Amino acid sequence: xxxxxxxxxxxxxxxxxxxxxxxxxxxxxxxxxxxxxxxxxxxxxxxxxxxxxxxxxxxxxxxxxxxxxxxxxxxxxxxxxxxxxxxxxxxxxxxxxxxxxxxxxxxxxxxxxxxxxxxxxxxxxxxxxxxxxxxxxxxxxxxxxxxxxxxxxxxxxxxxxxxxxxxxxxxxxxxxxxxxxxxxxxxxxxxxxxxxxxxxxxxxxxxxxxxxxxxxxxxxxxxxxxxxxxxx
Amino acid sequence: xxxxxxxxxxxxxxxxxxxxxxxxxxxxxxxxxxxxxxxxxxxxxxxxxxxxxxxxxxxxxxxxxxxxxxxxxxxxxxxxxxxxxxxxxxxxxxxxxxxxxxxxxxxxxxxxxxxxxxxxxxxxxxxxxxxxxxxxxxxxxxxxxxxxxxxxxxxxxxxxxxxxxxxxxxxxxxxxxxxxxxxxxxxxxxxxxxxxxxxxxxxxxxxxxxxxxxxxxxxxxxxxxxxxxxxxxxxxxxxxxxxxxxxxxxxxxxxxxxxxxxxxxxxxxxxxxxxxxxxxxxxxxxxxxxxxxxxxxxxxxxxxxxxxxxxxxxxxxxxxxxxxxxxxxxxxxxxxxxxxxxxxxxxxxxxxxxxxxxxxxxxxxxxxxxxxxxxxxxxxxxxxxxxxxxxxxxxxxxxxxxxxxxxxxxxxxxxxxxxxxxxxxxxxxxxxxxxxxxxxxxxxxxxxxxxxxxxxxxxxxxxxxxxxxxxxxxxxxxxxxxxxxxxxxxxxxxxxxxxxxxxxxxxxxxxxxxxxxxxxxxxxxxxxxxxxxxxxxxxxxxxxxxxxxxxxxxxxxxxxxxxxxxxxxxxxxxxxx
Lengths: 232, 577
Prior knowledge:
By secondary structure, chain A is mainly alpha-helical.
């Protein structure tokens, strides 16, 4: 083949110019690497939306089938705590966006502070969620088969047909969402440590940006969960 | 076989002495287990999937053996239920869905677009490990008492039967991530990693096929993932989403299941279409007819494929209106599929057809897939489907598509790219014999099943009425022929690894980059210099003009004209600086 004639003298591309430390060998430029990572993240977020979509469909179907059940069961949820959590999560989206903003301006310290703030807010969300969950468990509002409501305003649910189904959907949806929050916290913590070690600058901040994208998705899912489960 | 030695362009008697290639630059076991090279990951997948195909294929032969006579011939009915369930689950989720993308997509796609690797090599390796985790869970399901639900896991039965279902649904959830990783990787690779000059209209059609496949993988797989999670929770916590006794809806499970599993059919067949375009163009030595129509019809099938899942549920009690709509959209799928078949036939017309083994598989595909497609339109007809639902007609229909389509295309593709993967030629005579046996055996197995189904033989039964005996025995005999053909392939493939003739860099005179610009055994980085693409993937006539061929009638038997390599792209003046 013609290729073979010019193989020996031709310089190979792996050694011809200085790579920035973060540039992997199979990319031509940082720009290409960054664009690829970002596109990959967006595709991943699409898969996340589809993962949640099936649960939203289940919610829609059973709300249509048993509207009174959903209204009655929904009233037992604590709207105050839900509202606080919504505010907490929205604020964490702001702080994670600020961390991207600051790393773009090479202000590493501010970036780390904002990542830390995001981490604290995410932790706060989980703590509030913990109190919500335990107050339900105390009154026997478990998902599915163990559903046995008693005490407080939960007692009336014993007479509502299929009330357990609402709590199944509530716990599955918020549970899987909560799992995403915990994974997000781990990732944010890791990014913060790497930022502290000086891995990022305005030249290279892909992980910060991707983490931000992921965190916004976690936020958006909650923005849909909150009104659907607590308000309507 | 001798034709290959006659390649006039093989002016490189010692190409293997050039030294480094992707197989020999590192040889330790760890170098394989930790490799980020897309070619090696393709080979890892190839070995793994071959084992799964062997296991699931043997199960199929066992099933046919049981059906060699009415009544109980060699196993209890419960065992038969487990055997057909495991055959279906392993073939669909663990073999067909990952098969072509994970093996040939991984190996070929980056080379075809002139890239050094896929966009995310680590994710690519992770995909293989995740797949292995899924396969391990499958083995756990077997140890835990097996699965007898069929591959569809319909509720409420799947909620009440055996502990194996939990393991199996976890396996499908986990293995799904392997597919998502691969699909995501390919989309980004095709968008961002193309060599200079590789415009969208110059992409080889295999790449277009993989692109359409990857879209479906990314959009559909998460839904089966969450469905499996909900099914697991249904078993463990009785959440009452799918169980009617707790207020749930078993038909909702069917909707969720088919929302993935119908598009999954296109995950399986779209890569096969891609391989077909490569084979038909290369072995007719002619420019593919209707390049854009073939490329875009793949994307059209991917999109329409999301809108037809309800045609699996005509008898489930879904509303008549939705059944009618699903039926009509199902007919629409026939249009892009027909566009492809007609374009391939038009490419053959006045081409210089070279009947090597890959081409024989390609021609088999045209025949078998057409039957699979037509029978698919048949069962998309509402009134007909009510009669044919859950009969052997359905079994035969999807085997014509999945086995006659995907597996035959995979076999053709494996033969076609075998020289590039292994650096060795397989035995052409044995290859042709095996291709013939597969074609005859396949039709002998599955054509009688169309007749059986039309006569009312229900699927998934271990026994049957005496009047079905003749056709069942014919089908069992056919499965034997098919088995012999496939084992023959396995035999000469293994033989060729050690004793096969060394392959030249471009034994087929193909015009895509992995043949024209890559050494016989690829370099670890694929290309010594990134190529600059100046023509389309099937412009044999342009390549001939460069070489003074002119008439485009080059023929393997008369000395193959090999297309020119693409020139090297100018070295980047480091955009980062």
